[in-house]
Amino acid sequence: MSTSVEPRDPQATPEGEASQPTSVGRGGELVFSTISTVSGLSILAILAAVAFFLVLLAAPALTSDPADLPYGEFWQWVAPFAFGTVWAAVLALLMAVPVAIGIALFISHYAPRKLANGLGYIVDLLAAVPSVVFGLWGINALAPAVMPVYGWLNKAFGWFPPFAGGVSGTGRTMLTAAIVLAVMVLPIITALCREVFLQTPKLHEEASLALGATRWEMIKQAVFPFGMPGIISAAMLGLGRALGETMAVAMVLSPSDQISFELLTPNGPNTIAANIALNFPEAFGLGINQLIASGLVLFVITLAVNMAARAIIASRAEFSGAN
Amino acid sequence: MALTIRSRRMVSCVVTGFVGVMLAGCAGPSLPSPVEQTPPRECPPGYLMGAGSTAQQGVIDSSIATYGAACRGSNTVEYDGKGSGDGVTDFVNGLTHFAGTDTVMDAEAIERARCRCNGNEAWHLPMVVGPIALAHNVEGVEDLVLTPEVVAEIFTGEISRWDDAQIIALNPGVNLPSQPITVIHRSDASGTTENFTTWLNAAASDQWASDKVSKNWKGSGEGAAKSDGVATRVQETPGAITYVESSYADDHKLPTAGIETGRGVVRLDDASVAKTLAGARRTGQGPDMRLEIDAVPDDPEAYPLVQVTYEVVCSAGLGPEQTEILKDFLGFMAEQQTRDELAARGYVPLPEELNSEVRESIGQIRP
């Protein structure tokens, strides 16, 4: 957690160590600093290798004549999938973050100690469920169960564009996919938020309570301001998982290739990752390059989202109770 | 890459040898009687790897199992159902010894296959037929009849209810429910989609334009992944219809629609599929058995929606060891007993005439 609150710390440490004269017979210092430096550099090397691979294999699709591309003009083709990726992930976050904060607060500040421990384990267990199981749950249990609800939403709130249109006959819509994604990102966000909330300085909390604040007011005054950067980075980690999730979306969503905000119709655009998974086995020649190029687009989207999150955390850190 | 294949082969040889020893050791003292009844098959030793079409995976897997049992582990055959496109790519790159494909290779792939076979031609051998069924789930309706035009309009969303006047007109006396039609289609790229849309375009070009002929679905409806996925969704969704390889429709106990060709109603069964294949045109030469099936067959009793999947093999130049085992395995698949077993499992066997030609082609493969 300290990484996201004070991002500059880990970089400073190895440099400081390296410059200090450590040859006082303690070989462990050298070994450890070498190991951490190599680890730090290797993650950069891996990232660079992935980026290099993506660019190299995407280039033919980006440079060749659109008429030769098996799926049509590249940007026109990839736009709905890029939209679908972001749309599904954002919907998932909208549902998951409030619930995750609620669970985390319950565990850290409301629940009795024994219950809190047990609940923490259960949430962590949810993170260990493979995505194919979530996918199966989505198509076999969730989709049939939500169909009547979708019908009602469409009848009652059909004037609201996302609920408009002809309701799907199988329930495998964008909203169902987003609910599955929300359940999948819930444990990550909850676990991180819980840890952050537990870090709130006791003095801040007690000062707030001493001034006559109720528990909810104390949480508003002490816990949230302190935990805000942590909540944001937790949400961003969740977003990262939602953006890249392949299997569950490929199984649950009935995909289309058009940009549509409709949540209850079978017109939900596919996500980039699921689209690659569904089309790669039958792809050949330039088709492979085109699919990899869409992977590059996903890479760039994820990078942009993470940079935005970093910027928000950096600007927030100064105002939080952390210092 | 050659290294991978070699090391893999070594591993499997070791494994096979080990299993063989174990089997021999186990079978030695108490001779199992059922195995002894059929004379043991002489199988060439070695390793054969194929990859490709998922449509024929069921047939190939089942053949590999019976072949392995007949050979008592003296060799290893593997098939990776990763999709036709991948399968052909792996084959022309020399990663596998044969490919399974739903569609005939394009000119570029044929050229590359020639390089892979050391300058020899690659042949298409039709080994597995997969009729495409119009599987549906309409309450109380078993014998639905549709024309190609109506099928096209259903799959474009033009006809959206089961009690549409056009469907009622084709099915007098059938109690069609007042229910919306849910079209289910493949969400992954698929040779089945390509074959189905090719047929729609050929048989009902006014309703199904040629720009909708593709491996990726361009009609309306809801997508599901893989053949099993679409069949399961239809089974679960009242009022649903899909196009799927017939063995999946059987597996899920879904009724299939008959097709009114204008000269009578054709239903999907072994006989109507055999008639279609008998009338198929040859586009390859000699042992290269590429078939083209008319969207509207000349024979009024022929079922028009038949997909033929091929094994792509080197006519020569694969190397002596692999050629031996390839010929033996494909020959085994074309044997009457194997075909009977496949038929018993719900697959449609290749008609007699075509099968004997395939056997001839297999015989002409040289190392």
From TrEMBL, chain A:
CC per GO annotation: plasma membrane
Domain of life, per lineage: Bacteria
Organism of this sequence: Propioniferax innocua
Protein family according to the UniProt entry: Belongs to the binding-protein-dependent transport system permease family. CysTW subfamily.
Compartments, as annotated in UniProt: Cell membrane
Protein name, per record: Phosphate transport system permease protein
Alphabetized UniProt keyword annotations: Cell membrane, Membrane, Phosphate transport, Transmembrane, Transmembrane helix, Transport
Record PROSITE patterns: ABC_TM1
Membrane topology recorded in Swiss-Prot or TrEMBL: Multi-pass membrane protein
GO molecular function terms attached to this record: phosphate transmembrane transporter activity
Automatic annotation (TrEMBL), chain B:
Family, per entry: Belongs to the PstS family.
Gene Ontology molecular function, alphabetical: phosphate ion binding
InterPro entries: ABC_phos-bd_PstS, PBP_domain, Phosphate-bind_PstS
Domain of life the protein comes from: Bacteria
Protein name per Swiss-Prot or TrEMBL: Phosphate-binding protein
Keyword annotations from UniProtKB, A to Z: Phosphate transport, Signal, Transport
Entry GO terms, CC: ATP-binding cassette (ABC) transporter complex
Pfam families: PBP_like_2
Gene3D superfamilies: Periplasmic binding protein-like II (3.40.190.10)
Keyword Signal tagged: yes
Signal peptide feature range: 1-24
PBP domain ranges (all copies): 45-334
Positions with a binding annotation for phosphate: 53-55, 84, 102, 190-192
Gene Ontology biological process terms in this record: phosphate ion transmembrane transport
